[in-house]
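Re: that backbone. Tokens:
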């Protein structure tokens, strides 16, 4: 049996009278890429924030590598996280920002140069992040999330602003994480990417996990064997 690196058990989260996540349970195994998909407001970003320990569930529990996220730093040391909305120190250079992240993660300083090269940021490494384009900022966020090869990598909408070639490189990088028995959780609206890369896909709607399985199993459930995967999503999400 594969080791479960992420375990979400019956989590609920409400904001005032709005139920954002309503009794969701899932697990992500070592060596697995798990994709979360859902329309805006479906609850997937709230679920991701609970997995990363940014917020806590009102009910239920989340464990990362055996540590309850309510214990704060103990669980977070296993995580790398790319939020959908990126926030940087605008007057740091790209290199300085990654050096800061590497220091916080106690990572080898050589990883900074490797990250700048992989994400094609060497030409702008000494420029302030405040002057970066959307694509540059996204690549910098991805580089920061992946420094020190976290056991669990969580990416919320990682493709926005990336060109096709960088999407291909990112897909290969995520596959390499899988080969090292690490876990990857991806939330994305790019259904072709999701279908191609994910071992399992969870479909969220109105705070519920309404369907879960391989792309093939979800196609069979939707009775859409050859349609675009977005059609499968819309049918199962209701």
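Recovered sequence:
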């Amino acid at each position: 049996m594969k080791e479960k690196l992420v375990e979400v058990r019956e989590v609920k989260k409400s904001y005032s009278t709005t139920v954002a996540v309503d009794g969701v349970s899932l697990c992500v195994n070592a060596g697995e890429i798990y994709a979360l998909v859902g329309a805006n407001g479906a609850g997937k970003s709230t679920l991701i924030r609970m997995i990363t320990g940014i917020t806590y569930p009102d009910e239920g529990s989340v464990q990362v590598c055996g540590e309850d996220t309510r214990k704060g730093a103990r669980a977070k040391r296993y995580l790398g996280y790319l939020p959908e909305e990126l926030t940087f120190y605008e007057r740091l250079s790209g290199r300085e920002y990654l050096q800061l992240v590497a220091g916080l993660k106690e990572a080898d300083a050589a990883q900074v140069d490797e990250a700048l090269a992989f994400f094609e940021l060497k030409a702008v490494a000494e420029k302030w992040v405040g002057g970066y384009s959307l694509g540059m900022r996204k690549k910098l966020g991805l580089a920061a999330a992946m420094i020190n090869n976290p056991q669990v990598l969580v990416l919320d909408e990682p493709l926005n602003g990336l060109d096709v070639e960088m999407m291909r490189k990112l897909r290969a990088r995520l596959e390499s994480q899988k080969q090292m028995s690490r876990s990857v959780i991806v939330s994305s609206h790019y259904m072709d990417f999701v279908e191609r890369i994910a071992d399992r896909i969870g479909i969220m709607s109105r705070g519920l996990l309404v369907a879960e399985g391989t792309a093939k199993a979800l196609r069979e459930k939707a009775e859409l064997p050859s349609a675009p995967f977005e059609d499968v999503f819309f049918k199962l999400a209701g």
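Residues 144 and 158 are 12 Å apart (CA to CA). The chain is about 35% helix and 25% strand.
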